[in-house]
Amino acid sequence: MSSPIVASPVIQRRASLPSLFTPGEQMAKLVLGSEKALRYSFEQRPMQNGAVTDTEKKRRAAMCIEIARVLRGDCKWSVDKVADYLPRYLLNELDGIDWKPDKRRVWTPD
Prior knowledge:
Layout: H1 17-20, H2 25-44, H3 54-74, H4 79-95
């Protein structure tokens, strides 16, 4: 008899956004933080021809969501801190630079 397949404890499901950011104020803060990060990323890392495509908007928005999942879900950061750090971590992602969440306990919003 073969033994049942057991999922590795290392493999974890990604938390859904509604489980990390409650609908209403928290989700609104995430949306505003993401918009700020996207706007800043297009200012700092513009497209080669200057035109912003829908595909690139979606790609960068998906990066923001994944960054937010890590910061809120894995690091247990506040919603305000997640929104504040999104622009710099999105630029790091776009530049292919490894980033690690800031471990300092004291944080002052930008």
